[in-house]
Amino acid sequence: MPPAPTTTSRSTTGPPATGATSWAPSVATAPRRPSPPFCVSDACGRQLTGLSGEITSPRYPESYPNDAECRWSIGAAGGPVTLVFADFQMEGGQGCGFDYVALFDGPTASAPRLGRYCGSARPPRTVSSTQHLLVLFKSDFNIVGRGFKAHFYSAGECQEVYTAIKGNFSSPQYPNFYPNNLQCQWSIQLPPGYRIKIFFLDLELEARSSLTGGCDYDRLSAFDGGAENASLLGTWCGHDSPVPVTSRGHRLLLVLRTDRSTAKRGFSLAYVGGHGQQLGCCLDLVPCPSPFQGWFIRSRFAR
């Protein structure tokens, strides 16, 4: 990661912007050598669709240009949009009146503003109330920083309900690194009388705490029911190799939580539903009765 610019003071030519929802302490950066002109080839901002993606300030991780204005309008068909900043370093100042990122709860800047941020503190995880989120980046005529990198994803990727008898799913962006500050849920809901068995195909999360030995940072947990107050079936992190887990009822909930730093590949798993005798046969190298036979063997070793 490039070093942060050296710090000095900056005199203001007018009052700070009003209505700022967040601001960093007035720790500005010393002027650097003039940036090259902001050419057409540096054009930034666009319409973004899909379940997930990444946006960065122009020229990131190099210093962004002066006098830039970029707009990313994110539209996700799966539901509300979640935006998580992985890196953030811009000119600071009370009110964020110089360089800033502003977030709006809709496709345009006329939508309600969710926040306005500058400085070196990463903005909080932001969730829109609609299927659209606008990210506006502006820089003024002087003093630049590294800029930002952010990930977005929709509820369609991170809040899923499965009702099929068999299936498989993985963490956001798998096998690439998952975003920070996640709180994802996958709920498997089958008809009464069924039980659910999950098989871990791959798992790599942030390692256990060296102090406590627990999954204090990033973790995947399974609950024997439809909510987090149900019995805990297991919690995993690091390079754990979990054995298959079976529910006692017809619902099972998987929850992935990640913190503000250190991301890994994530996880991939498969599940099957059936009655007790069927699931008892579904061990790693034992064939499963129809309809699981063949499908499970393919899923188990699909890496």
Automatic annotation (TrEMBL):
It comes from the Eukaryota. Residues 44-155, 158-274 form the CUB domain. This is CUB domain containing protein 2. Residues 1-34 are annotated as: Disordered. Keywords: Disulfide bond, Repeat. Residues 1-19 have a biased composition (Low complexity). It comes from Anas platyrhynchos platyrhynchos (Northern mallard).
